[in-house]
Amino acid sequence: MSEVYIHPSAEVSPRAEIGAGSKVWSNAQIREGARIGSEVIIGRNVYVDNDVSIGSRVKIQNNVSVYHGVTIEDGVFVGPHVCFTNDLIPRAITPSGALKSLDDWTVTPIRVRYGASIGANSTIVPGVTIGSFALVGSGSVVTRDVPAHALVYGNPARVRAWVCKCGRKLEEVVETAETVRGTCPDCHETYTLARESRP
Q: What is the mean pLDDT of the chain?
């Protein structure tokens, strides 16, 4: 497997870990303690905060902000200009007017599970889990957990359909209180998905 490529203009902490075959493009910044797997593409102007965990074979497009508290599992796609947030009660100052320090707020984590995709310009609020192979439409504001294989979009993002691992919408969908069943028109794979909490 090839070595790591880091563009000369990128700023990568010597205390970050980057796996073999990964590429870090121009003006990206990767902070101390960040752990990035193998064969990852970090696009132009991407910011990866301290202690962020990114799996292998992940694509993070240009101008994405991945803040402290985010975990991105293997095989995830993150479109351009996506922002992961981490503070449920954001303030610059304390009630007394002093500038907030690291001790004055609590990080609320986000997890993006295996194979999920997040469309361009989406915002992911703290405390959310995006399920495996879920698909978040461009421009969405994700305020609640996204079930595996769900297609969500809007502000706030809501479940609109269900998708195959290949990304195509499932057809012949039958939903009950406990499950969702449908078939991919391209792969012809049939899914029976356990219903999780829906946005």
A: 94
Beta strand 179-183 with 171-175 is antiparallel
Indicate the length of the chain as a whole number: 199
What are the extents of the domains in the chain? 5-166
Give yes or no for a contact between 60 and 66, defined as CB atoms under 8 angstroms apart: yes
The highest-level CATH class for domain 5-166 is mainly beta
Alpha-carbon distance 4 to 124, whole Å?
29
Compute the distance between CA of residue 85 and CA of residue 106 in angstroms, rounded to an integer. 12
**Rounded Cα distance, 75 and 155, in Å:** 25
174-185 residue pLDDT tens: 988 889 999 999
pTM: 0.93
